[in-house]
Amino acid sequence: MGSHIYALAYCDGFDKGKNIFMKHDGTIINKNAYESISPFDENGYAKVSENGDDYYLIDVDGETVSDKYSYTIYNVSTTKDIYVAQNADNTESIFRVKEGVIASGDRIIFSNTTASRPNICFAARKNNSYTVYNLNTNTELATIDSEPNFHDLFFTTTKGDKTQYYSCVNGKMFYDGATYY
């Protein structure tokens, strides 16, 4: 999406070492010059920082669309508005652009997905347990004791010698079976 927006460094009229974004017609889109910038992604968002410590996303109009985070911010594949970011305390948050944080934890876990199988579940690990959420509804589905393995519309976890199967739609366990090796 940002194919006609250029990232320019060391521009006249701005502090040395500062970066700006300019449209193909010469219009500067950002209100502030940035210490650090990344190119606009396929969703039309760029990661920027004014001080090199606090990073956030802006849209192609230069508007801030996320909270501030430490350096790492990345898009959850196959989604247009869901990102994961590292917080200053080394925890992670998953957030929806322009809406805010959905959940936070020591680690955010989600499945590798494709466009034909969009990611609808993720988990936030906190205090050695995992809370699983539905991305479509922003609802908490289940809290489990071991790391989930995500599949198309369900996730599994191991409890003792059994594999438990849960729905990504409603969080209900639908099978509690033996683990086969």
What is the approximate shape? elongated
| CATH domain fold name of the largest domain | Thrombin, subunit H
Can you summarize the main beta sheet?
4 strands, antiparallel
Cross-sheet strand order for the largest sheet = 6-7-8-9
Give the rounded overall mean pLDDT: 86
Percent strand equals: over 45%
- Elements, N to C (H/E): EEEEEEEEEEEEEEEEE
CATH architecture of the largest domain: Beta Barrel
- Write down the Rg: 20 Å
- What is the CATH class name of the largest domain? Mainly Beta
Structure notes:
- The mean pLDDT is 86.
- The chain folds into two domains: 1-65, no CATH class; 100-181, Beta Barrel (Thrombin, subunit H), CATH 2.40.10.480.
- The protein is 0% helix and 46% strand.
- It contains no helices and 17 strands.
- The strands form five sheets. It has a four-stranded antiparallel β-sheet, with no helix packed on it.
Notable features of this structure?
elongated, 181 residues, mainly beta, single chain, four-stranded antiparallel beta sheet, Thrombin, subunit H
How is this fold's topology laid out?
Layout: E1 5-9, E2 19-23, E3 36-37, E4 45-49, E5 55-59, E6 73-75, E7 82-86, E8 92-96, E9 100-105, E10 107-110, E11 121-126, E12 129-134, E13 139-144, E14 149-150, E15 154-159, E16 162-167, E17 173-178
Antiparallel strand pairs: 1-2, 3-4, 4-5, 6-7, 7-8, 8-9, 10-11, 11-12, 12-13, 14-15, 15-16, 16-17
Structure in a nutshell:
It is built from no helices and 17 strands. By secondary structure, it is mainly beta.
